[in-house]
Write a structure and sequence with these properties.
Number of helices: 10
Mean pLDDT: 78
Radius of gyration: 36 Å
Distance between the termini: 111 Å
Number of strands: 8
Oligomer: single chain
Order of helices and strands: HHHHHHHEEEEHEEHEEH
Low-confidence stretches: none
Shape: elongated
Structural class: alpha+beta
Strand content: 5-15%
Helix content: 55-70%
Amino acid sequence: MFDQEWRVIAIILMVLVAVAAQVLFRRVRRGVKDWIRKEHPFGPMLHSGVDWLFVLFSLTVWVAVAAGVLAAIPQTRFLTTRMLELLSQGVSLLVGFFESPIVPGKTEHEGFRIKHLFLVVAAFAVIALLARGVRRLLLNHILDKTPMDLSVRHAIATSAQYLIVTVGFLVLLQSAAAIDLTVLGLVAGGVGVGVGFGLQNIANNLISGIFILFERPIKVGDRIEVGEVHGHVVHIAARATTVRTNDNIDFIIPNSSFTSSNVINWSHGDQKVRFRVPVTVAYGTDARLVERLLLEVAGENENVLKKPSPRVVFWAFGDSALEFQLRVWTSRMLHRRGVFFGQLNLAIYEKFQQHGIRIPFPQRDLHLKTTPPGWQPPSRG
């Protein structure tokens, strides 16, 4: 009875210690993540590392608690022994797997084993993360202090990221994996076959991304229109470009779309853009009065530039109205064209109402060649 009470106490203590360790490590994790700001160039990578470390710690603690609980109970003590045996066998199998050669029986590859391949993959992942961190460091902490344009900073940072990945990959092939670079010939041949059998679009997007980064037909911050997508360019990568609309929706557009189709860049080289607002008035309206009122509307809008000055064009004699165009320049409303047109149209409508100018609705004349027997035209009274 005495031993049984001590076993219960030991089990409770083990569980309490495990819970306390979990709570303590959770607080430590939160403190470390708060100390490492996400804005830091390597912040996301370090945050992920801390989270994975917490998962491994929790798994280790609870496996140890489970083994301790099973060992404390005489009826389940054999399960602890069996668990340790299975764990030992699993470790032995895993070690044997990593020690096995990639190509059995080939003496020229005898020294290259699965553990080397695993190390190469892990090292390449670390290089990719470091390259991404270097890009963030250049973009947000170094180049932003220079007078360079935003698009130039993005191009330099992205080029540095890809350069680090490429150089790191070549160094891994030559040193870490002990592979001679002549093997790259076989890899290049395989890539060529892959391109021929279905990777044309990926290769096209990668090449298009290089042209976009250095030729700069579009840049980060530009207001563009591609098909039905209207928005700002927020990121240019090797394969695709991210365009964010006014609804805060990100469209991931393949880079080949920018080199093989028409792209409207509203802010390429200059932020000033001219918009044309169509206006119709009834026949018999004083055209000079309409011109004066439209210029007043343009002058009263703070988003309309004074230079170049707004203009009014008597565009055409329509079927049922006189057609005018109010042409205004703006540099602040490229991303809010709907709002801009709404401001001008509302001001025009109110101005016309004040001066008794009528905006006509479409009219059509109907000529009847034949009428059914007994038909009478409707009376106007």
